[in-house]
Write the structure tokens for this entry.
Amino acid sequence: MTDWNRPFHVTVVCTGNICRSPMGQVILSDLLEDAGLGDAVTVDSAGTTRWEVGNPIDPRAAAELRRRGYDGSAHVARQFEPGWFPETDLILAADAGHASVLRRWAPT
């Protein structure tokens, strides 16, 4: 059952959660804040693997974000957990491979 009193929850997903998905999280969060939707939508990110869990954003991704006026310095990589499906309203997969993994993990 959907809790309409909570913010809409978006998770951006890539492989290791150190480059594409955290960049998507940071930029989407900023755009939503600028649009006045910061309280209505929460954005986070995760990876499909455990390879980078606990690591910061890749320095190249952080540099590109900084170059465009964004800050990804607080990011810590994590893996998507199948138990998150019920509370995640929208999952943005970085590519078809990530979407395939997420479909396999999704509850039936």
Notes: Strands lie at 8-14, 41-47, 90-93. The first helix runs from residue 20 to 34. Residues 8-79+89-105 form a domain with the Rossmann fold fold (CATH 3.40.50.2300). DSSP finds three helices and three strands in the chain.
